[in-house]
Design brief:
Helix content is 40%, strand content 14%. The protein is of the alpha/beta class. Helix 3 crosses helix 7. The structure holds pyridoxal-5'-phosphate.
């Protein structure tokens, strides 16, 4: 039996994309290496240092500490783990906006910390007044998101970080998806914009590295120390990562993608994707569909279940938000002809539905 993966021609709601050709080649070259054991695999460990320092440039951290792990979920979990380890209370809580990724639910459950959710304002960013009302002396971590999974919204990082600092809590920024677009916007979201302690940024999404490649970056070495355990039988004797054996492919492909694309390639991709998202928003509007205006290249538009299912039946690989909007993530593989074909199918479904309604009358 021939085994082949799906191609990306009808994938519109995923945050995965085709890796950059250089990233693909580097992944293959380093496939059998394990950066979790740098004493045995020093070559890939050296690549990881370079990759982390380039990621530091992207997030405004001149001397970054961190590592390339499995993805955003691991990085978010590690942020919660640090907060728990460094907390001065036995009953820590963490506060996240309702727009935060479900990985924080996993982290809270695994680490047994209380998860408090804060609502969002009309613009779908964290409600700062509600945030302040959720904090107390046991709050160990406040999380904000720059590029929310459902609407691509960017929380006000300086404000959130300052609120966290005032009560002595840590601040983590989840830029898993948005981190490779944001350097080309006016948003204030970086380590040099606000007193944030750690950040998630995923090379395997907009970064165009091969899966698995997630970035976890921290402001100071002490943070990573809090996560470090002793590793008795390896050549090096300490390890801050969550998993043991890690993907050398993810590390090498991250560096290859960064070298190929930072900054000009990512800038032109941001500009291309944002222009396409704005165009798509207008196309929805011209059909009487009140799409949510994109802030980053992600367009969510109200869509009833039958229309959504009809488009799924046409082979469109789309998903919906919790509120029932279709969610189009303009990733590097998403092109204008592809979106035109999608809109043609949408028009056909809408025409069919109105014919059905007339027939019922
Ligand atoms: C994708 C995403 C995650 C989870 O990352 P994985 O790499 O899928 O584990 C976390 N947060 C945000 C904002 C994301 O977009």
């Amino acid at each position: 039996m021939e085994r082949r993966p799906e191609d990306f021609s009808r994938v519109l709601s995923s945050m995965c994309t085709r890796p950059h050709p250089a990233a693909r080649a580097a992944a293959e070259t380093f496939l059998a290496t394990n950066p979790g054991d740098p004493g045995t695999f020093p070559s890939v460990a050296a690549l990881e240092d370079e990759a982390v320092s380039m990621l530091g440039e992207i997030v405004g951290l001149p001397e970054p500490t961190g590592y390339i792990g499995t993805g955003g979920t691991e990085a978010n979990l590690q942020a919660v783990r640090v907060a728990k380890c460094l907390a001065e209370t036995d009953t820590p809580n963490i506060v996240v906006p309702t727009s935060a990724h479900f990985s924080f639910d996993k982290a809270a459950s695994i680490l047994d910390v209380e998860l408090r959710r804060v609502g969002v304002t009309d613009d779908r960013t964290i409600d700062l007044t509600a945030l302040e009302s959720q904090l107390d002396e046991d709050t160990a971590l406040v999380v904000a998101v720059t590029g929310t999974t459902e609407y691509g919204r960017v929380d006000p990082i300086p404000e959130v970080a300052n609120i966290a600092k005032e009560i002595g809590a840590r601040c983590h920024v989840d830029a898993a998806w948005g981190g490779f677009h944001l350097p080309f916007t006016d948003h204030r979201w970086q380590f040099d914009h606000a007193p944030i302690d750690s950040m998630t940024i995923d090379p395997h999404k907009v970064g165009q590295a091969a899966i698995p490649a997630g970035g976890f970056l921290v402001r100071d070495e002490a943070t990573l120390d809090a996560l470090t355990v002793e590793t008795p039988y390896l050549v090096t004797d300490r390890q801050p990562t969550l998993v043991g054996t890690r993907s050398g492919a993810g590390v090498a492909s991250t560096l290859a993608a960064l070298e190929a694309l930072w900054p000009d390639g990512y800038r032109s991709e941001y500009e291309r994707a944002m222009a396409l998202a704005t165009w798509l928003d207008d196309e929805f509007d011209s059909r009487g569909i009140d799409a949510i205006e994109p802030v980053l290249p992600l367009v969510s538009a109200p869509m009833d279940r039958s229309t959504f299912e009809a488009l799924r039946d046409e082979g469109w690989r789309i998903s919906r938000t919790r509120a029932g909007e279709v969610r189009i993530v303009v990733m590097p593989h998403v092109t204008r002809p592809q979106l035109e074909a999608f809109l043609d199918d949408l028009d056909a479904v809408m025409t069919q539905q109105s014919t059905d309604v007339v027939a019922e009358d």
